[in-house]
Write a structure and sequence with these properties.
CATH topology of the largest domain: Collagenase (Catalytic Domain)
Radius of gyration: 28 Å
Number of strands: 11
Number of domains: 3
Strand content: 5-15%
Strand order of the largest sheet: 3-2-4-6-5
CATH architecture of the largest domain: 3-Layer(aba) Sandwich
Shape: elongated
Distance between the termini: 46 Å
Number of helices: 14
Structural class: alpha/beta
Order of helices and strands: EEHEHHEEEHHHHHEHEEEEHHHHH
CATH class of the largest domain: Alpha Beta
Helix content: 40-55%
Length: 473
């Protein structure tokens, strides 16, 4: 019985995955340490945009979503969220360069008292009434945040953008270091941006011009907060990748290995600015414990990539042909060393075969039926018997999972999840996909299980919403 295909050939890696803080390590995690500076009485601010754990979690969730949607290889990863007492002299400190630099100097001189981390960006949040301020490279290890940072939906991501060498879109009258972001001003409306760059109001501009306006107006690094700031340009992403890769020794929780099939440079070190030209070169150099980052393109490899290797596509979809072991599970459980598993799996095979034969025989019988009603009756009866065989197969898998262990158990649980999904039992599908995600140590299998669990939950919610009006009636 084929429970799970081991090798994935011609695999499209730009899968839309459900990603939250718990699965941040499936990408290249940028370590962030959050510290609330308490007042002299040990209290956080009672009000503000960033005074509760829930607000911080929401900022991180939004930042992760943005990075995922623009197909960045990075995710912001919160290593800790702690209260910091004993430094109340900074509780009301405004977010300006003087206070930031003084705080950094004090923290470096007394790391224990300030909970200073040398392997993360240290974000200090206090009760000040202004906004936030970061520090650009090379001292890009601190951010001082007050309570009224107003970027939407993630002020934290905006400030981390500065730490990764991004300027505001309006810096220097539009000179933000990126040629693909047009001229901006912090006070401009969308029409102002369009008029100053293209000589037309937004509605009268071409679609291409409107997209350029939107790229600035809705940019993570803009000051236009009337709408969500969700976009990053290709140049901005390149600046982030360059800086993040440069700071890999202290900032990143996993080491990225870059591959770019379009790279024309001489040196190949697997770095963002000197990537490998071929996937095979990266595999040969060793990927253990690292994250393989593919610039969008088509790649071939003759050596199977370990199922424990994390693979991320950057900027756009990438395709790998041959030998990609995204994850592995047993496909020959009928040869299991556990007798109960072996017998149950063979019973599943018999039920599956019977279900196929019922439908095949019914189709042949229906062809000889005298009337449409007789044909419909034959097919309906066959469908009912087929469903009974499918239900029997699920029961046998439920029996098998009681005795299975390790990868065999996960393989059976995944099969149960898929069969429940295909039968329309979305509640059980969610349950078993979630069990697989919680049980496996294989990152890509966990991601797939989480993705399927969320899809099944969406279908279950939709069915419940459809049923709600009739129940009220």
């Amino acid at each position: 019985m084929k429970l799970q295909q081991i090798y994935a050939r011609s695999v499209l890696l730009a899968i839309v995955l459900v990603l939250a803080a718990a699965t941040a390590h499936a990408y290249v995690p940028v370590r962030i340490s959050i510290k609330f500076i308490l007042d002299a009485n040990g209290n956080r601010p009672a009000t503000g945009n960033l005074n509760t754990d829930a607000e911080i979690n929401a900022e991180f969730d939004a930042g992760i979503d943005i990075l995922r949607n623009v197909l960045s290889e990075f995710r912001i990863y919160r290593t800790e969220l702690v209260d910091l007492s004993g430094v109340s002299q900074y509780y009301s400190a405004a977010a300006n360069s003087t206070n930031r630099d003084n705080l950094r100097a004090d923290a470096i001189s007394n790391p224990t008292a300030y909970l200073w981390r040398t392997n993360a960006i240290n974000v200090y949040i206090n009760g000040g009434t202004s906004s936030a301020i970061s520090k650009f490279p090379p001292d890009n290890d601190i951010i001082l945040m007050n309570q009224w940072c107003g970027n939407t939906p993630s002020c934290i991501l905006h400030e981390i953008g500065h730490s990764l060498n991004l300027l505001h879109t309006h810096e220097g009258g539009g000179a933000d270091g990126c040629a693909d972001t047009i001229s901006d001003n912090s006070s401009w409306t969308r029409d102002d941006i369009a008029l100053n760059n293209f000589g037309c109001v937004y509605a009268a501009c071409t679609a291409a011009q409107q997209d350029k306006v939107d790229l600035v107006f809705n940019n993570v690094m803009s000051y236009h907060i009337s709408e969500p700031q969700l976009r990053l340009s290709p140049c901005q992403m390149d600046r982030i990748s360059t800086q993040g890769d440069s700071d890999r020794s202290w900032l990143l929780a996993k080491t990225p290995v870059y591959v770019n099939s379009g790279y024309t440079g001489l040196f190949q070190f697997g770095r963002f600015t000197a990537p490998y030209k071929t996937l095979q070169a990266a595999v040969d150099a060793g990927l253990a414990g690292k994250v393989l980052v593919l610039q969008n393109g088509y790649y071939t490899v003759s050596t199977a990539i370990s199922d424990n290797t994390t693979i991320v596509t950057r900027s756009a979809p990438s395709t790998i042909d041959r030998g990609v072991l995204l994850y592995s599970l047993p496909v020959d459980l009928e040869k299991s060393a556990v007798p109960e598993v072996r017998r149950a799996v063979k019973a599943v095979q018999l039920e599956d075969k019977a279900a196929r034969q019922v439908i095949k025989a019914a189709k042949q019988a229906a062809e000889g039926a005298a009337t449409a009603a007789e044909r419909a009756s034959i097919l309906a009866d066959a469908e009912a018997r087929k469903k009974q065989h499918e239900a029997n197969a699920i029961q046998q898998l439920l029996n098998a999972v009681k005795f299975a262990g390790g990868k065999e158990k996960i393989a059976i649980q995944l099969e149960l999840a898929q069969r429940y999904r295909d039968s329309g039992n979305y509640a059980e599908a969610v349950r078993f996909f979630s069990i697989v995600a919680d049980s496996t140590k294989q990152e890509h299998l966990r991601e797939r299980a989480l993705y399927e669990a969320n899809r099944a939950q969406e279908r279950l919610d939709a069915l419940q919403q459809q049923a709600a009006p009739s129940e009220q009636e």
